[in-house]
Every structure is written in structure tokens, then in C-alpha cells.
């Protein structure tokens, strides 16, 4: 009998956001596949879970090399939890390839829902939540980034969904410039350091935000949101 692959969401900042179900699963599984074994070790220790010897590193650069080993673990009847450094695995983090291949092998896959930056940012942004488009992290190359945003503008002219984008601090200004080039001086919402001590929500136009972050240090992870309904 095969084991079960659990997709377990972990806190995006505040450790109190871990669910009781997630804790129970992490306690009982035989293995935990994670991006950073050190960070996961710290999380497990804070939860009083002492099974560090069962950690398997699983991050983007080694994903395909690790999958056969993980599938063998599951086929041998042992349960495994997949977690990311923060949030829900598979959302702008490795995971979907493993899930797809596990399902193809007849392995049971169960999601243990919990924290997700895209959902947390959306519901607290004040923007429409009836429809949204999640783009994750935009392409690093400017040409591809602009092409994606232009396609979004065209597709969203009728859909009118709130757009949600992830961005790292060192790329924020470049992304703001790209948004301005495609959409003009639109109003956006920036959510920074969600669920953490310095959580911040900023509502302003792209031009003002670009000037702000060109002249001051940019820290923390960002979620960018905007809606064509209020452009």
C-alpha cells in the first residue's frame, strides 16, 4: 500500500498561523520534503516536533533529481509532507511536478490548507475579490516582463479581475517602471512583510511609489495588486 503525499501550508511570517492539522501531519509523517532544511528544522523545533533526521531537501535546482527518491519513499508505504519555506507549496514554489507525477503513479495526494500570501494580500487590500489573476513573480528579462504585462492588459480589459504579483525587494523598482510603461500611472496597492511585525499596506500611484523606492532602501517581500475596475 502506498503512502500519502501531504501538501502542507506553513506560516508566511507569524508562526502562530500554523494550523492544528498541519502540526499533526508534520508530527506523524515519515519524511518532510522542504526547500531549506535549516529553516524547516527551526520551524519544527518551535512546534516541538523532533524528527529532523527525516528531512529531504527539495528546491527548484534539485527538484527533478529528488522526485524519483520521493516517489520511492511513497511507493514503499511511507507518508511524506511537502512544505516550502513559507506559505503553500506549489504557489511560486516547487511542488506541482511532484504532485502531478505522484498522481500519475496512483499515490494519494492531500492538501493541508493554510497561509498563502496571495490570498492574504487580496482579501486585505480593499480591492475586488470576486475575480483575480495571479502572476507570481514576473520574468527577469525586461522584454518578457513587458510582453506579459501587455498580454495581461489586453486579456483583463473584459475580465476586470484584480491582478496579484509577487516581487522581491531588489526588483521592485524595475517592476514599477514596467507597470508604468504598460498601464500608465495607475493606482496600486503594495503589501509588504505580510503577517510580520513590520507589515505594511501602501496605496499610491506607480509614479509616486517609483520615486519613493528609488531614493530609499527597499526591504521585505512585496505583493503588488491593482484592479481595472478602479483604474
Secondary-structure blueprint of this entry?
Blueprint: E1 4-8, H1 20-28, E2 31-34, H2 37-46, E3 55-57, H3 63-75, E4 80-82, H4 96-104, E5 108-112, H5 117-123, E6 132-137, H6 142-159, E7 162-167, H7 172-183, E8 187-192, E9 200-205, H8 206-214, E10 222-226
Parallel strand pairs: 1-4, 1-5, 2-3, 2-4, 6-7
Antiparallel strand pairs: 7-10, 8-9, 8-10
Helix pairs in contact: 3-4, 6-7, 7-8
How would you explain this protein's 3D organization?
The chain is of the alpha/beta class. It has two domains: 112 residues, Tetrapyrrole methylase, N-terminal domain (Cobalt-precorrin-4 Transmethylase, domain 1); 113 residues, 2-Layer Sandwich (Methyltransferase, Cobalt-precorrin-4 Transmethylase, Domain 2). It contains eight helices and ten strands. α6 packs across α7 and α7 packs antiparallel against α8.
Amino acid at each position: 500500500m502506498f503512502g500519502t503525499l501531504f501538501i502542507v501550508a506553513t506560516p508566511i511570517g507569524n508562526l502562530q498561523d500554523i494550523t492544528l492539522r498541519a502540526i499533526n501531519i508534520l508530527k506523524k509523517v515519515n519524511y518532510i520534503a522542504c526547500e531549506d532544511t535549516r529553516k524547516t528544522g527551526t520551524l519544527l523545533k518551535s512546534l516541538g516536533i523532533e524528527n529532523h533526521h527525516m528531512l529531504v531537501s527539495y528546491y527548484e535546482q534539485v527538484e527533478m533529481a529528488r522526485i524519483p527518491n520521493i516517489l520511492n519513499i511513497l511507493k514503499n508505504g511511507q507518508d511524506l509532507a511537502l512544505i516550502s519555506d513559507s506559505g503553500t507549496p506549489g504557489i511560486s514554489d516547487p511542488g506541482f511536478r511532484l504532485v502531478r507525477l505522484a498522481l500519475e503513479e496512483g499515490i494519494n495526494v492531500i492538501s493541508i490548507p493554510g497561509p498563502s500570501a496571495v490570498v492574504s494580500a487580496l482579501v486585505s487590500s480593499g480591492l475586488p475579490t470576486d475575480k483575480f489573476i495571479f502572476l507570481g513573480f514576473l520574468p527577469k528579462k525586461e522584454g518578457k516582463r513587458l510582453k506579459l504585462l501587455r498580454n495581461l492588459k489586453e486579456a483583463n480589459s473584459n475580465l476586470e479581475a484584480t491582478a496579484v504579483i509577487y516581487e522581491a525587494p531588489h526588483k521592485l523598482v524595475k517592476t514599477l517602471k514596467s507597470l508604468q510603461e504598460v498601464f500608465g500611472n495607475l493606482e496600486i496597492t503594495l503589501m509588504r512583510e505580510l503577517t510580520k511585525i513590520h507589515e505594511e499596506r501602501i496605496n499610491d500611484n506607480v509614479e509616486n511609489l517609483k520615486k519613493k523606492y528609488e531614493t530609499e532602501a527597499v526591504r521585505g517581500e512585496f505583493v503588488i495588486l491593482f484592479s481595472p475596475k478602479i483604474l
